[in-house]
Amino acid sequence: MAEGKRLFMGGFAAGMLALLVLASPARGAFVTLPSPVPLAEKSLDLLRKANPADAPQWQLVVFGFTRCEDICPRSLENLSRLVKLAREEKVELGGVFVSVDPDRDTDIVLERYTAPLGENTGYLRLEGEELERFKDQFGVEAVF
């Protein structure tokens, strides 16, 4: 871990997402990370590329797929709200949607899907082992 950098979903943000997601009638799972997740430098570089315009050091990361009808759109809406609220409070915060379905979530599809999220948000489309390593760092498992 270079320069001791860490990426995490803080208590406030995780709590907000948990409240908003768990309050919905949709079926799904929500995981709150108990502590910061140390990421490999390669993963940090990927997150920086997802928000190339002076990417904020702190990023909320949401995993999902574009054909998800219930949880993913709500999670992205919550992500967008949190990033906008942070900006209003003068907190530098970014958001990244990570697709767990790269076969169907092409760059064109993801660009269209995440465009409404606004400033300081982006997406990552990883494939194969690179996606598996990235998910493993967050303890994410995707089963179709």
Number of domains: 1
Count, helices: 5
Span from first to last CA?
32 Å
Low-confidence stretches: 1-29
* Annotated CATH topology: Glutaredoxin
Number of distinct beta strands: 3
**SS-based class:** alpha/beta
Can you give the mean pLDDT?
74
Name of the CATH class: Alpha Beta
Topology:
Layout: H1 11-22, H2 41-50, E1 59-64, H3 71-88, E2 94-99, H4 107-114, E3 121-125, H5 128-138
Parallel strand pairs: 1-2, 2-3
Description of the structure:
With 144 residues, the protein is an alpha/beta fold. It has a single domain (2-138), classed as Glutaredoxin (3-Layer(aba) Sandwich), CATH 3.40.30. It has 5 helices and 3 strands, in the order H-H-E-H-E-H-E-H. It has helices at 11-22, 41-50, 71-88, 107-114, 128-138; strands at residues 59-64, 94-99, 121-125. It has a 3-stranded parallel beta sheet with strand order 1-2-3, sandwiched between helices. Helix 3 (71-88) links the parallel strand 1 and strand 2. The chain is globular. The relative contact order is 0.17.
Question: Any key phrases for this structure?
Answer:
single chain; 144 residues; alpha/beta; Glutaredoxin; 3-stranded parallel β-sheet; 3 strands
